[in-house]
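Q: Predict the assembly, please.
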Amino acid sequence: MPQWTLLGLLQGKQTAPWPLAEGSDGQAGFLGMPRYHPELCGEGCEACAEICPTKAITMRPESGPDGRLNVDYGRCVVCQLCTEACPDGAMATSSDWAFGARRREDLIWQKDAAPASAADADQRRAFRRSLHVRHVDAGSCNGCESELQALNNPFYNLHRLGIFFTASPRFADLLLVTGPVTQAMLGPLRATYEAMAEPRWVLAVGTCAVSGGIAEGGYASGHGLDGIIPVDVYLPGCPPNPAAIIHALLMFLNRAPQRAKGGQLVE
Amino acid sequence: MTPPQASTLHARDLIKAAGELISSGGRMQMAYAWYPRKSELELRYVASPAAQAPFAVWRCDANWSIPSLANTSPLLSWYEREITDLFGLEFDGHPQPQRLVLHAGAAPTKPPLAPDYPQDAPIRIDRTRQAVPEVAVDEPDVQLLPFGPVRADVLESAEFLFFYVGEAILHYHPRLFFKHRGMEKRFEGLSPERGVVLSERVSGVGSVAHALAYCQAVEAASNCAVPPRARFLRLLLAEMERLYNHLHYFGHLCHTTTLKVGEAEGKLLEERAKQLNTRLTGSRFLRSILALGGLRRDLSPQGWLNHELDRLRDAFARYAKHMESTASHLDRLIATGKLDRRTAFDQGATGPVERASGIDRDVRRDHPYAAYQEIPPLVAVREAGDAHARAQVRMAEVSASIALIQCALDMMPDGPVRAECAITPNSEGLGWTESPRGTLFYAVHVGADGKLARVKIKSPSFSNWRVFPFTVHDSNMMDYAINEASFGLTIAGCDR
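A: Predicted assembly structure:
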């Protein structure tokens, strides 16, 4: 065993200072949600809406103050096809990933979006420094699980933020759900939610849980969490990276501001 | 990629053909069904006549009574049950004709993969109607422990039934397919180009392996050539995927043997590999880069990746040396979850699992694709068949992957990374890759309209989940988690 102790000590501290202090969040080079620039959008062009595999981009019946497109980041699977199809740079690559939002409509692009209010801040105050999370995989591709498992690696070290995954829904304050909710997982998901003590909250992680994602509908798959259990925070992404998940958790606890407003990131 | 040898068989000749294939050292790979025309169901069997001979594809008209081949080639049992669930075709004399993909409480109005199945009609599942195998029903000491589908920790959903006496597991029955999303049907009607993004999301940690097998299947159907630089970059991406998956595997394996620093080290190395993926492609899962005919855009790994891999190789060598010299860790692995060669072969084990049981197969070497013809991998094989052998095979594969990538970087040709790929209507193709978990097949059928008519996915985890219970029956509870970790299974890939 001393060899392992030595190996650990020789490595030094591997944990990122982020989000507690300035420093790298480990996402250098990450391609996030494409940024919509309505002013660059060319008349008569529908290339992005045609290529979008999840109908995250659709044409508006007529052009308004929010441009010609309806862009719903809650449906975006970050495949980047629109950025390649767009001839005018109106859908451009970006590194935007901190898309956690309290309201579903905060994920839809809007020119002048009203800032979201911090919901039931008092009720959540007691959980600010110690939150217990129960995860349920409701039919994901395992991409979201891979990133959730990464949260406890030495780089992100989620424990230091006072956030823990718990085995039993009875001990959990927050239910974290991934996947579009397959027909076979509908019952177990509801049973898990019912087993939680109140107050209880729900975080939808990944575009599948937010809106159904790439495998939405069909004979076996679902349309995300809406209409099944109430959602307190939506975090789209395919999958959202570990830093995005941490930001969404801190945002839920009112320890970080919501950055997604009107489908854009604001400081 | 050498195209498979196609032949047509009558239903009455199937058992004889399968028997002859197996007695001459061949192995069945998979079976699936599809509708070449409405109301005309056809079966396809993919076989491997000899380790390095081209694959064989048998067609069989399914409007006759079809005999089950599960007694001749046991690994086909699950494929036949899947066809029964999804196409409504029953096989005569199947030894285990229970539901597999659809749960017992599901009552579809029509088989969901039939052409006239009402689009987007969800199959509701009655959870009160669950089938439980009857194991030692007269023995009062035998207890049943149903565990899941929501398990402890951050894990994928599946339910495991343990029939146990004290510490001893008498019988183990995994109930999978809670995560079945009907992915194969989602491909139908899409243009082949659209299928790439979907194939990347069948199994997240196998995004490259899936998308590459899919692209190669379409490229085979349409006779598309891939430029040399794209072939080398495809190899590089496939090996980068193997790297982060195998590093994760060791972190998880150390977690189950309670080697805490070993767990942290494995997961830290995995994180480093994923951050290299991001730097290379913008995606931690190497998504949004593969395309029909090559890659969506060029990558620039030259000048920095080689050096980063040197660092990773040294760190892993040190880590592996520690694991291989820690008695408490090895004690838990050696002789745990032993899978003998015969069971591995008959039941269809694939990838590191079969290679740890003495079966020397790897499609990268035996049926080369991408740039594996130019840079063949060193294939690691172990004979012991236990958890330790499975870990050792992966250990050797980490070093081999780094060597392959560095070799590809050295030999990387310049030039375009994408060639035009015009889709041939009424065509079909078979694509394969050696994913981190084993052999993956995509069989793609393109219809007269140039759209996807049928896409069959044979994932390595579907194969290895079939095998895994054979190592759990008659074992003990304390070894279970270690044994499961040593198989390195995913559930998304299996359930689709």
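Helices of chain A lie at 2-11, 47-51, 81-85, 121-125, 143-150, 183-195, 207-211, 242-252. Chain A touches chain B through 70 residues (CB under 8 Å).
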